[in-house]
């Protein structure tokens, strides 16, 4: 289902030439010297469009550094005057919006914790009514696409047409190499249902450590995202917040030099012809797969009837374990990831159970 947002193209509100948008700067504004010095180094790279800095920091526990506060807005103003960089900061309340706009901040973003709360988003949206300012909305902490879309709709409903999304990954109970799991499929879904919406990537918060940032940055570019927001500090080792995921301006410049930026299409007719041919093959295979799934479900229905007539439960755990073990081995042999194979089998299994449950309960309902 497509979502219609009344927005302007990214190129009409931030000129990046033919390159991706790059927003960079420290996680937190700590001191005036730290922020302004970092801004100069970032501007000197010639690769950064917008200077970011956290002024108000939502912290999990009280007593942690919650941002320098409003005085940091004056430091942003000075950094802009001296470097020419546009400025950006996170807002989480109506008061934040009012103070940031009064200080001339050029770009605002709504953080992941705020996106998760519709009341907070609506408060921010109400404060933005009648204002012409670019606003980015980060994905919510948890993997909930509806919350993300809802927040975007609320901000857009306030009249904000310079609107974009930030993909910063999602929390997960599983411990992996990432601070926040990318869950690219959710970002892809957002691109699919709102194709006009610019989406930029936040490798810093996905990775949680600087070593993985180049990998995620390249992945984001390959996923046709329109920019990056990366935390950069003049000396990450002494940063007051998120020290492990910040890079120096020099390291950022090197990272951006090594990123391959690819285009969404090609003017080469030979390429287009070959691509069309390969897509036709995929379409044919997809049709065959769906037909075979349909045949599989018919057999599942027969199994449901047989279980019903013999008073046997639907779920057979040992059978499910056997299916997973055998099919995963086959998937590996076919160079298909185990994760994909398991998810695919779970979908088939759940649909089979649903159909068998309908059959078994239909008889019970009829007898009742």
Account of the protein in words:
This protein is of the alpha/beta class and 368 residues long. The protein is built from 13 helices and 8 strands. It has helices at 32-45, 71-83, 94-102, 112-115, 118-128, 145-157, 184-193, 203-207, 213-222, 249-257, 269-309, 317-333, 338-367, and strands at 21-25, 50-52, 86-91, 107-110, 135-138, 163-167, 199-201, 227-231. It has an 8-stranded parallel β-barrel with strand order 1-2-3-4-5-6-7-8, surrounded by 5 helices. α3 (94-102) links the parallel β3 and β4.
Brief description of this entry?
Helix content is 51%, strand content 10%. By secondary structure, it is α/β, with parallel strands linked by helices. It is elongated, with a radius of gyration of 25 Å.
Largest sheet: 8 strands, parallel, barrel
Estimate what percentage of residues fall within beta strands. 5-15%
Number of helices: 13
Number of strands: 8
What is the distance, rounded to the nearest whole angstrom, between the alpha carbons of the first and last residues?
39 Å
Question: What integer is the average pLDDT?
Answer: 92
- Category by helix and strand content: alpha/beta
Give the helix/strand layout.
Layout: E1 21-25, H1 32-45, E2 50-52, H2 71-83, E3 86-91, H3 94-102, E4 107-110, H4 112-115, H5 118-128, E5 135-138, H6 145-157, E6 163-167, H7 184-193, E7 199-201, H8 203-207, H9 213-222, E8 227-231, H10 249-257, H11 269-309, H12 317-333, H13 338-367
Parallel strand pairs: 1-2, 1-8, 2-3, 3-4, 4-5, 5-6, 6-7, 7-8
């Amino acid at each position: 289902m497509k979502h219609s947002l009344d927005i302007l193209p990214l190129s009409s509100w931030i000129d990046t030439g033919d390159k991706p948008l790059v927003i960079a700067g420290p996680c937190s504004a700590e001191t005036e010297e730290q922020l302004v010095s970092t801004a100069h180094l970032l501007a000197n790279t010639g690769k950064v469009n917008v200077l970011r800095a956290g002024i108000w920091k939502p912290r999990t526990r009280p007593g942690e550094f919650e941002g320098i506060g409003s005085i940091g807005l004056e430091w942003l103003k000075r950094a802009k005057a001296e470097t020419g960089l546009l400025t950006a900061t996170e807002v989480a309340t109506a008061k934040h919006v009012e103070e940031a706009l009064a200080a001339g901040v050029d770009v605002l973003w709504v953080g992941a914790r705020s996106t998760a709360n519709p009341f907070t988003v609506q408060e921010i949206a109400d404060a933005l009514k009648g204002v012409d300012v670019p606003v980015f909305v980060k994905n919510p902490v948890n993997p909930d696409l509806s919350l993300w879309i809802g927040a975007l709709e609320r901000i857009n409903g306030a009249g904000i047409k310079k609107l974009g999304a930030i993909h910063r990954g999602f929390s997960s109970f599983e411990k992996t190499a990432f601070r926040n799991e990318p869950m690219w499929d959710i970002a892809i879904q957002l691109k699919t249902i709102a194709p006009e919406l610019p989406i930029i990537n936040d490798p810093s918060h996905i990775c949680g450590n600087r070593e993985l940032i180049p990998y995620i940055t390249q992945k984001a570019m390959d996923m046709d995202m329109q920019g990056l927001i990366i935390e950069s500090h003049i000396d990450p080792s002494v940063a007051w917040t998120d020290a492990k995921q910040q890079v120096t301006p020099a390291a950022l410049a090197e990272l951006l030099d090594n990123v391959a930026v690819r285009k969404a299409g090609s003017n080469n007719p030979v390429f287009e012809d070959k691509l069309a041919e390969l897509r036709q093959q995929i379409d044919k295979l997809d049709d065959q797969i769906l037909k075979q799934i349909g045949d599989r479900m018919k057999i599942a229905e027969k199994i449901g009837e047989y279980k019903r007539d013999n008073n046997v439960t639907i779920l057979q755990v040992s059978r499910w374990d056997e299916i997973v073990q055998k099919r995963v081995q086959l998937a590996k042999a076919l160079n298909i990831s185990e994760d994909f194979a398991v998810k695919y089998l779970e979908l088939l299994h759940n649909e089979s159970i649903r159909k068998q449950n309908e059959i078994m309960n239909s008889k019970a309902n009829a007898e009742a």
